[in-house]
Amino acid sequence: MDIKIDRDFTAGTNSFEEHAQDRCQKYFDNYPFVQSIQIFLRGDKHPTKKVKLQVRLKGKDIFASAEGQHHHDAFDNALSKLKSQLVKYKTLRYNVT
């Protein structure tokens, strides 16, 4: 499992990192073809927070991004978009429904 969080600001809270680790662990457990997840956060001074996810799969990278009032909300929205892409990839690649 490889989860990296990149910020464009220096101050950070461990609560977001713990939240991200817990939520991403489910994807490593449910989708064994997921190799790594990289999380990009837009800074605290912006009125809306933006989170971008880059997921490395076996032979492919997929991306998802979302905005929200807080990084936690944006992260959860991006994960829901990511889940639909992972289900589609799994169905096409492994012929599983």
Describe the structure concisely for a colleague.
By secondary structure, the protein is of the alpha+beta class. It has helices at about 15-30, 70-95, and strands at about 5, 35-40, 50-55, 60-70. It is elongated.
Written overview of the protein:
The protein is of the alpha+beta class and 97 residues long. Helices cover 42% and strands 32% of the residues. The chain is built from 2 helices and 4 strands; from the N terminus they run βαβββα. Strands 1-2-3-4 form a 4-stranded mixed beta sheet, with helices on one face. A hairpin with a 7-residue loop joins strand 2 (34-41) and strand 3 (49-57). Helix 1 packs parallel to helix 2 (71-94). The radius of gyration is 14 Å and the shape is elongated. The two termini are 25 Å apart. The mean pLDDT is 84.
Widest beta sheet: strand line-up: 1-2-3-4
**Largest sheet features:** 4 strands, mixed
The assembly state of the depicted protein chains is: single chain
Rg value? 14 Å
Output the structural class: alpha+beta
